[in-house]
Amino acid sequence: MIIRVSVRRVVSGAAALAIGALGALAPTAAAAPQADPLPPQPLSADLSPLHRPGTHVRTHRGAPLLPQDVSALSWLVADARTGEVLAAHQAHRRLPPASTLKTLFAVTTLPRLAGRTLHKVTEAELTGVGEGSSLVGIAPGNTYRMADLWRGVFLSSGNDAVHVLAEMNGGWEATARQMQSKARALGALDTQVMSPDGYDAPGQVSSAYDLAVFGRAGLANPQFAQYAATVDAPFPGGTHSDGRPTWTYGIQSTNRLLTGAGGVGRYPGLIGVKNGYTSGAGNTLIAAARRGGRTLLVTVMNPQRGGGYEVYENARSLLDWGFAAAGRVEPVGSLAPPAPLTRPVPVRKAPQPGPEPVTQAAVLAEKTGSGIPYALLSGVVGATCLAAVVILRGRRGRSLR
Question: Longest C-alpha distance within the chain, in Å?
């Protein structure tokens, strides 16, 4: 009896010792190796029908029909406050933008040059102005106020003013890169900037959608909005060293919906933004108007009928439709940059330790990658059992004596 009791205790102690040794060597549950969580995987967030060809509008009962006299290759009508696109035609068709690209130039560089007040123009800064460009009349050696240079951009669409400001901003190519980066940040993915002034250049394109994005971003800047809404202003023909003009001449906005010039009726409530023309782009226009607490934004690219003023009549028809359709259409897209969607990625869980027979612990550890070699665990168990046998023999010998 004494021997049996001793055997049970010794065997139990040996087992406990073996398990304890295994527990000391095996990692605990808290220290179990965890798989690094994978980063969220982005999904395409652009589910807008605007990427499909054709005309897109979602009307309720009683909504006015879209105007039938709009012949532009691409156009868009949006709510400037919310960014909701109310209707569009070929919104992402890539076309040359002409001087409407100056809106992106201003959105990009106006904040960067906000601290500058005066600048003396050099001959080198006017190098490279394209042949036949629209000019405000900047002269080397004159010192200009920043406001004069920006009025030269917005009112006269002066490529000479753009060249000077671009050089102040770090250079022509650097400014083009900054504009490209800004376009991407705003979600305008159709635009390729080759010439910051909008002058025709191989590969330079934008879209009605992107131009609306630039116009909306610009109107959010009070300085931009003020320049875009200015009808006329004096411009210095000569200057003192402190920027005061020695003589001036008048300049007027080239946006006829804003000025009412050339027989084009001024649009009620118009607040800008920018027009353009080149032989490659045809006539282009970004126009914004405010009425009854709403601000609408319209872009028109390259009308196919009528003369040079047809772009304004296309914009007028679209603005009229947009105000009449208030509350009677559902948006077909948004000018806001799409937020990337993410899908959860499952994280691999490390196996949790559980009660296992001592004789299987080493095998389990090796299979689950606990890092404990099978030979080492086997050695621990064997040594523990051998010690138990020695103790038993010693006790049995004492009992027999």
Answer: 131
pLDDT digits (tens, 9 = 90+) for 312-358: 999 999 999 999 999 999 999 999 987 765 555 455 555 555 444 44
Element (H, E) at 259: helix 256-259
Task: Say yes or no: 128 and 179 in one domain.
Answer: yes
Q: Are the beta carbons of 343 and 355 closer than 8 angstroms? A: no
pTM for the predicted model, two decimal places: 0.74
Integer Cα distance of 238 and 142 in angstroms = 6
The pLDDT of residue 363: 39
Encoding tokens for residue 269?
Answer: 């409530």
What letters, b where the CB count within 10 A reaches 16 and e where it falls short, cover 148-186? Answer: bbbbbbbbbbbbbbbbbbbbbbeebeebbebbbebbeeb
Give the rounded percent of residues in the chain with a pLDDT score beyond 90: 70
Give dist(CA 233, CA 57) in Å, integer.
Answer: 40
Neighbours of 123 (CB within 10 A): 9
The contacts of residue 126 (CB under 8 Å, 6+ apart) are 138, 140, 160, 163, 164
Residue 1 has pLDDT above 60, yes or no: no
DSSP for 148-159 reads HHHHHHHTT--H
126-136 pLDDT per residue, tens: 999 999 999 99
Amino acid at 239: T
Same domain, 265 and 311: yes
**Rg of the Cα trace of the chain?**
38
Structural domain that includes position 216 = 49-342
What separation, in Å, do the N-terminal and C-terminal C-alpha atoms of the chain show? 15
Q: Are residues 276 and 313 in the same domain?
A: yes
Q: Is 102 within the bounds of a domain?
A: yes
Collapsed DSSP state (helix, strand, coil) of residue 325: coil
For 94-123, the pLDDT digits (tens) are: 999 999 999 999 999 999 998 889 999 999
Q: Are 296 and 81 in contact (CB under 8 A)?
A: no
Residues 6+ apart with CB under 8 A from 124: 167
* Number of residues in the chain: 401
Give tens-digit pLDDT for 71-98: 999 999 999 999 999 999 999 999 999 9
The pair of structure tokens assigned to 66 is 């879209």
Residue 248 lies in a domain: yes
Instruction: Kindly list the catalytic residues.
Output: 99, 102, 157
